[in-house]
Structures are given as C-alpha cells and as structure tokens.
C-alpha cells in the first residue's frame, strides 16, 4: 500500500511537471499566433485588450458584431470605430472586456449592445456564458479584475487555474491555426461582420415570453462597477438595443426593471430599436429572429447614427 | 458532488486513504466507513433526503429479516409485498404524482372540462430510481430464497448506499454485489490501478466527448424552430453519441471508484453502438437496468416461453415500464414503446436466426450496425425532446426541411477529435480484444504516457463545470 502511494505521488509529480511545461509552451505559442494574425475573430478579446486604439468601441455578442457597421459610424462621427462584438459572448464576457480594455486604452465612447435580459441568470445560457470567459485566461495573472472575475466562476476555480493546460482549455485550435494558414485578415470592416442578404429562409416572427424572470444581483453589481469605472475615466457609455424579429416580452421582466434602475442611477443614454415597427414589419431585414442581415444593419445604422450624434452632442 | 467535480477529487482520496490505512481492521470497520462516506456523499446533494434513503434501505433490510423468521409462504409474500408497495409507493409519489395529476387534467380537457387542479411542488430526490431498485432486488431475492436475509446491517447499508453507485447505478443485485460486503477486502494494487484507469477514461468520455457534443446539442434543441431538418438530423446523431458517452462515462467512473475499494460493480455498457440488432443493443446498454427488468418483470410474466401474442405483450410491458422509469412524461413512454416495437419487428423478421448473427466484420453486419444505430438514434429524439409535440416537430422537420448545417466549428472539431479517439478504442476492444493495450500494457512507460496523454486531453478539451450527468434526472 505504501509503495503504491509513493508510486502514485511520483506519477502526480510527473503530471504536474508536464502540465507546467506544456502551459508555458502554449502561452508562448498563443502569443506568437496572436502576433501573426491579431485581427482573427477568435482572438477578438486579445486584440481589444492589447491593441485597441479606436475612439468608439462597439461591445456585445453576435447581435453587436452583425448589427453595427463600424465604417458608417466612423464616417458620420469622424471618430475611429471598431466593432469588438463576438458571437456567443454574453454579459460577463462583455463586462470583463470593457474593464480590461480600460486598463490600457480609453475610448471616447462605448456602444454597448448589452441585451435587455443581461442581468438575469438563464439556465440555457449560463454554461455558455462562463465558457466564453476562457478568452481572458491569458490575463488571469496579469489583471486583478480578471482574476477576481474568473475566480467567481466556482469555489475551486483558483485550483483549476493553477494548471497550465487548463488555461488553454478549448483554445488549441485558435492557437495553432495561424501556423497552418497563410491567410491574412484585412479587416476593412473594422470588426463588423456582415450577414448576406439572401440564400436562406427569412424568419417567422416569434411571439413568446422569455422562459426566465429573475435578477442576478452579482451581475447587477458588476455592471455598476463597470459603469462607475467608465464614468471615472470619462468614457461615454451608450446602451444600444438593436432590432429583433421576435417579442420575448422582456420589458415585463424583473431583469429589465433592474437594468432600468441602473440606467437611471448612472444616467446612461439608451438607443432602443428592440421591436421597432420599421424592422418587425419586414422579415427580409433579418437572417434569423435575433440577427439583422447586412441590409438590415445598414438601415438600422441610418436611424441609429443620427440619434447617437444627437446624444453625443448633449 | 458529481464524479467530475473538484469536491469528488478531494473526497475520494480521503475516503480511500482512510479505508486502506485506518479502517482496514476488519469488514465492519470498512463497511462502517463506506456507509458514513456514502451518507456524506448523498447528503452533499440534499441532506433532506437522507431520511428517505434510510427508510428505503431499512424497510427492505427489516423486511428481509422478518421473511427469514417466517416459515409461512403466505406471510413471506405479504411482507415482501408490503416492502415493495412501500418503496414503489415512495418512488411513484416523488416521481409520478405531477405526471398523474397533469394526465388527469388532460384527460378531462379532452371532454371539454377544465379542472382547476394544480401540480404539487415535489423535488425529485436524486438517485431514487436507482437505490430503490437496488433495495427491491434484495427484498425480492430474499422472498424467492435466492439470497439469505442478512443480519449484518452495516453490510446491507453499505450495499444499498454505496456512493459510487447510488446516484445513477449500476443497479446492484443482492446475489452478486451483497456478498462482497460480508468479507474483509484486502488491498489489491492491480484492482486499484484498474479502477483508477476506469475513472480516468470515464472522465475523458464525460468531459471531452459527452459535454463537448452537448454544447452543440443543447444550443440546437434550445432553438428548434430556427433550425432546419439537416441540422436536427445531425444533432440527433450527436445526441445519440452524447448520451452514450455521458452515461457510459459515468458508469465507468462508478465501477472504477468501486474497484479502488475492492468492490466489483456490474458492467453497465458493452459498446452498444456496435450492436447489430436492437435486441443486441439492449444486451449492451444499461445492462444493470435491463437485467433487473428481465429478472423481475419479464421472466415472472413468462418471458419468451409463452405464445407469441403473449410474448409481444411481455416485451411491450417491459419497455413501456422502462420508458416511464426514465421519466414521468409521455415522450419517455413513446421512446420505450418504439424500442418495444422494434424488438417485436426484429423477432418477426429474424425469428430464431437472430441468435445466429455472427460478431465478425462482414458487409451484412456493417449494414445491420448502421441501421440499428439510426433506429436507436430515431428513438433518442423522443428521449431528448422537451415533450411529445417537440419530438414530432423535430421528426417532421428531419423529413421535410433541409438546408445548410449549423456549424459551431471549435465545438465540433474538439468533439470529433475526442470521439475519434474513443471510436478507435471501442473498435479495438470490440474486434481486437487484448491485442493492443495502452492502459494495460506491460511496459510502465507506455502506461504512464497513456495516462499523461489522457489527462492532457481532458485538461485541453474537457468541458469543465458543464452539465450534470444526464441520468441524474432519473
């Protein structure tokens, strides 16, 4: 029995060593891969944190990346604009991104497609929400904010983060892909990802209430902290709600009421086209119930930008 | 705590060291520790249901003692009947009350009558279906005199509450698992190593394959109206693989955890998707449950030693009961019914020739395996869907609405990479048993490299803090 325990201990030491060395190697490869191609969609967070210099930052999930035409905003406002929206990255990711970006770079304006249900806990999205935080694992040891946020994922998250291999969990593809591809990304759209206007069935309008109605007070505190930081750094935050081809009755939920309270408390300007009649009368503006296609996005910008200009002028 | 949680990886070594270093004196000490650890493990989920667990365990224990003291067959029958009614009654209350209430309301609605009856707020105790069947197995076997009633309460409690198996099986059988608790277990490094290997491989199956594929499956099933038939068909196939890796991975971890304490639990899966017929599938899938139903429902009803119409009834009853065991909803009933009908159809198609189908790789067998896989996948649609209506929507779309596949590149690449590794291993086990050994290799370097590679794969591709095991909901 004792011999067995000693053998097991030696094996554990070997695993720890392999993990540590592999972690160091992957850290180095990841950074080399990022430098080779920083505009890749997979490293959007890294690009935002390490290289962003835009004056207008667009933050959000897929409804941000496909709805806000950066060049139209830049041309109209005369301010450099980049769309940092990333598919499948919800409130916690967006919140962490803003805080980490602000550690190095101070934009003039943050256009935040935050989502009206952002302050709720959704069973279907909760896992995905936390999975997306892996984008920030490289900054775990570099930023106290990042460390505290990631540790909040679970009681034992600190222990998981000791592992060099775990820090690159679900990342290997994006780390090694640039070395096998000579593709250079010329992001002339400045982060905006247009969706084709045809080649699919246009959606049918969905009229169905959200399945959840609750307020996650931790998320509400996170939001307040971020808005406070933006206020201290003189960054103008605008909450934006792009058109959706569905009605989830989210305005009747407690999570929306909680968000309205924060909006009032921090005096956040809001541009709301969530169920705007111009858009919900035309399904051909949408790829699916949640995302505008390029024609829809440009039409949205034609209405959004004048409102934004007015707001910024105040 | 789940087997994939950090808490379990602290809990298991502590219990292991206590078991082999401190409580090694005799079987009573070992059993006592196992019972204490098991109650802590179960109570970690919800301490409120510890009492219920003990009611089930103790009722069948004392029922067994009463039966052993009674010479009257009639009295023995009544005692066993009482124990069965009590425990099945508890199971039915917690699992099926709301189902019956809702069915009652739906039935009246068919006649245009709206009843204002609301369902009750009943929390389903985790593992109740499994430990109840474990306890019932003992009661029935004592009544049938297949096992002697034991007076060793610690051994019996260790048998029923054994933490590796209590939440989702394998369902223990008194004839096979109980005798192990009557003797002192000696430390066997080979068994412990095998147990740890099973734990590791089960972890790989659960975190790297099941939970990885689950990301895609859950995303599609959460938005069925937005997906076309091509995506839904693909997702159904992925769910077929997900549920296998989830449940088989869990079972492997349970069996492995049992082994490290010197307890042999029943094999629960034998590569079910290599089955050549649905009948064969059920010899390889959730073996502990299917043998339980076979021994305690199918055989007492006459099994296949009855006229054909009666045999058809027996098969349908067993599979409908199996379906409803899995969940208190009509879609599970349909799932069970589909499997029953498939077995009946196979009997009509093959007759007794079904036993002559070889295990070799032949063209007919490849076709049979593929057809069986898709039939089973079709049935799983009813298992996974939220309800019957959703299942039929999915089936309808698969046959009518086609389009481009929804792609989540990284999820699918990682998932298929790990699935390929699993497929190669299962293929080698199925057809080349014993020829290629990695974990079981004689060379220590090969074994250690295999373990390190598996751990690396788990850390790089595993979905941590993901969903709980699918079968926990049963």
Element layout with pairings:
The complex is a heterodimer of chains A (314) and B (474).
Chain A: H1 2-36, H2 44-51, E1 56-60, H3 62-65, H4 70-77, E2 81-83, H5 91-101, E3 109-113, H6 123-131, H7 144-151, H8 157-160, H9 172-180, E4 206-207, H10 217-232, E5 236-241, E6 246-247, H11 254-266, E7 270-272, H12 277-280, E8 286-288, E9 291-292, H13 294-313
Parallel strand pairs in A: 1-2, 1-3, 3-5, 4-6, 5-7
Antiparallel strand pairs in A: 8-9
Helix pairs in contact in A: 1-9, 2-5, 4-13, 5-10, 10-11
Chain B: H1 6-22, H2 27-46, H3 50-69, H4 73-110, H5 128-143, H6 153-161, H7 163-166, H8 189-221, H9 229-259, H10 278-284, H11 287-298, H12 308-326, H13 330-350, H14 363-384, H15 388-400, H16 409-431, H17 444-461
Helix pairs in contact in B: 1-2, 2-6, 3-4, 3-5, 3-6, 4-5, 8-9, 8-16, 8-17, 9-14, 9-15, 11-12, 12-13, 13-14, 14-15
Could you explain the architecture of this structure?
The complex is a heterodimer of chains A (314) and B (474). Helix content of chain A is 47%, strand content 10%. With 314 residues, chain A is α/β, with parallel strands linked by helices. In chain A, a hairpin with a 2-residue loop joins strand 8 and strand 9 (291-292). The mean pLDDT of chain A is 91. Chain B is mainly alpha-helical and 474 residues long. Chain B has helices spanning 6-22, 27-46, 50-69, 73-110, 128-143, 153-161, 163-166, 189-221, 229-259, 278-284, 287-298, 308-326, 330-350, 363-384, 388-400, 409-431, 444-461. The longest helix of chain B has 38 residues, at 73-110. Classes of the chains: A alpha/beta (314), B mainly alpha (474). The A-B interface holds A 1, 3-4, 11, 14-15, 18-19, 22, 42, 124, 127-128, 130-131, 153-156, 159-160, 163, 165-166, 168-174, 200-201, 203-204, 206, 288-289 and B 6-7, 20-21, 187, 189, 192, 215, 218-219, 222, 225-226, 403-404, 409-410, 413-414, 448, 451-452, 455-456, 459-467.
